[in-house]
Amino acid sequence: MNATVLSSTTAPAARPARRCRWCDTLDAWLPKLVVAPTFVCSLVFVYGYILWTAVLSLTPSRLLPNYEFAGLAQYEALFDNERWWQALSNLAVFGGGFIVICLAVGLLLAVLLDQKIRAEGFIRSIYLYPMALSFIVTGTAWKWILNPEFGIEKLVHDWGFTNFTFDWLIDPEWSIYTVIVAAVWQSSGFVMALFLAGLRGIDDSIIKAAQVDGASMPTIYRRIIIPSLRPVFFSSFMILAHIAVKSFDLVMALTNGGPGFSSDLPATFMYSFAFTRNQIGLGAASAMMMLMIVVAVIVPFMYSEMRRSRHG
Amino acid sequence: MKTLIKTLHAALLSTSLLAAAGAQAADVEVLHWWTAGGEARSVAELKKMLEAKGHKWKDFAVAGGGGENAMTVLKSRVVSGNPPTAAQIKGPSIQEWGAEGVLANMNDVAKAGNWDGLLPPVVANVMKYKGNYVAVPVNVHRVNWMWANPEVFKKAGVAIPKTWDEFPAAAEKLQKAGFIPVAHGGQPWQDFTVFESVVMGVGGPAFYKKALVDLDQASLKGPTMIKALETLQMVRKYIDKDAANRDWNLATAMVINGKAAMQFMGDWAKGEFSAAGKKPGKDYVCLPAPGTANAFTFNIDSLVMFTQKSADAKKGQQDLATAVMSPEFQEVFNLNKGSIPARQGMDLAKFDDCAKQSAADFTASAKSGGLVPSIAHQMAVPAATAGAIQDVVTQFFNSHTMTPKAAADKLALAAKVR
């Protein structure tokens, strides 16, 4: 490797031209060749299947795929479906709550950890640890913690406060909020790590200069540090938003969409219609709507960020 | 080098031999999800019977859930033109697979085995697509059971309710005595199971059939359905508030250890009682759900036969169907599973009292017209429709505000989903 680099950069004239023609072709083609398998794979397995799902959503497919054209009938049926609307409004509640709380908690933890405290590494791994668990484990653990029969409510009752109620898990109006609790517990440590890395990247001399100018610590955070974390906000938002939209295993483990279907999300809706109710067409239509949601949220955000960075 | 070539040669030779052998012996491949204790033992029995006839059993068990994983595997196998010999599929799904044109005609076997004489017509119809047998029933579960702990009723000083009219008074007394009257798990299919038994008890078999099998709009919206939904609301009051998302076997455990008085669940619950060492009639009683003594909501597992290419495979398939319908298999399978044989006129000496009553009621209700498919267990209407109705039922069951009238209107709307 080193030899070829040397030969192509330092002494082209010393080598016969025949060999270098090969070098150039190889140089030109090697990156493409190396990337080609990944490119083909993602073309087929990501975009190909998106296309296939789009096609299926326009057919009357039920048990097995079938390729008659049915127009937008599946989409009409989808938006007539009360359960779909419930899933959408749950996504709004869950997505909003999850992203905002995660960002807030993550930032707060990162700022507190950044105060040059003792045993920082140890505390940091404690906060980061939930990330190592799968959502299934998180969901099951929180199901037990939140269950009024043997979780927090029982514990407080045993302490003697028998008026205490905490039954979000079994209340159809509140069950979606338990999903937020569990998801925030899982992901805020990760967001903290992102923010911490951002904080460490800020040039100390700016802060020192501000201190010399007599700015108080809160003002420094508000006016200098947090605004300069903007790219971290952006990447955290991207990661959290797509976790929210594709959220499936957490809901399955925590509430199984219940009570009733009060904590259904689009992903669980899609699964149950496509795979247990023999309505592949309707499931495909809901999957396409999920894609649209991701596109609608991420693309404008990405566009504005890209433009900003290009303009400096 | 020479040895390497030799081994390569040997390997090639053996694979080609294997391929040849595979083409000659008939593989019988059955896709199922009977993987837990008693069920797995039953399948082993079927394997033994087929191997005695000289076929090679290729186990194709896909565990998980209510067979969702298995169905996904099956779909890909069928689409790629390589279906298994048979698969565990039940109810109206048989018709959906029939419409795809991939099922084998088993009329010859059925005629030789006199299936028409051995199966009640309601059951035989489920097994047929366009008048031809395409499936063979394995067992019959009764869904409209009520499992009660007589000790609890004795302590509370009440009799076990026989009708829904007697139910509130009894439940009230049970509650006063400090028991949970109804053990329930708040999962959609369990809500649906209770709903089904309530509709049957309030409206009777004829109404049940009209509303939940034929999906008659007027019946779904009518006063009888509203009364059934009011009854369901009443039952809900006697369920403990922690029931949400509880598994059915945990609810059964509450009846077993005397925390709760009764549970509405199919006869697979019997396995939990047996595993806890309880005796029917003494430690627990099995009764038809209130008001459903003359009715039987059935849940029948069946093996559906897929079209095979080679004559050998067809022969294996026919032997499989014959073996499944044989009295020996029907007995051993159902003893292990807690259900009753689908085949009529069998000696039931080895079965327990609950199974004997179930079998007697099965025969009697087949004659009286009280034998109907269970909607909660995917026997009555296609999966899409049953799912839509289940959504309404579970929403009503968990809502504090929806009125029975509004729920009935929604039911009628859901029944139009195809």
Strand order of the largest sheet of chain B: 2-1-3-13-6
Indicate the overall shape of chain A. Answer: flat
Q: What are the segments of chain A in which pLDDT stays under 50 over at least 5 consecutive residues?
A: 1-14
List the secondary-structure elements of chain A in sequence, H or E: HHHHHHHHHHHHHH
Cα-atom radius of gyration of chain A? 26 Å
Q: In this structure, how is the largest beta sheet of chain B organized?
A: 5 strands, mixed
CATH class (first level) name of the largest domain in chain A: Mainly Alpha
Distance between the termini of chain A: 36 Å
The average pLDDT of chain B is 88
Question: Please, could you describe this protein's structure?
Answer:
The complex is a heterodimer of chains A (312) and B (418). Chain A is mainly alpha-helical and 312 residues long. Chain A has two domains: 2-56; 77-310, MetI-like fold, CATH 1.10.3720.10. Helix content of chain A is 73%, strand content 0%. Chain A has helices at residues 2-9, 17-56, 73-80, 82-113, 120-128, 135-146, 152-158, 175-200, 204-212, 217-228, 230-246, 249-254, 266-276, 280-310. Mean pLDDT of chain A is 86; it is low at 1-14. With 418 residues, chain B is an alpha/beta fold. Chain B has two domains: 27-141 and 301-357, 3-Layer(aba) Sandwich (D-Maltodextrin-Binding Protein, domain 2), CATH 3.40.190; 145-294 and 382-414, D-Maltodextrin-Binding Protein, domain 2 (3-Layer(aba) Sandwich). In chain B, 53% of the residues lie in helices and 12% in strands. Chain B has helices at 2-24, 37-52, 68-79, 93-99, 107-112, 115-118, 121-127, 150-156, 167-176, 188-213, 217-221, 223-236, 248-256, 270-275, 311-325, 327-337, 353-368, 383-398, 404-414, and strands at 27-32, 56-61, 86-88, 128-129, 132-133, 135-137, 141-142, 145-148, 180-183, 260-264, 285-288, 296-299, 302-305, 371-373. Chain B has a five-stranded mixed sheet with strand order 2-1-3-13-6, with helices on both faces. Chain B has a four-stranded mixed sheet with strand order 9-10-8-11. In chain B, strands 7-12-14 form a three-stranded mixed sheet. In chain B, helix 10 packs antiparallel against helix 12 and helix 10 (188-213) crosses helix 18 (383-398). The interface between A and B is medium-sized, with 28 and 31 residues.
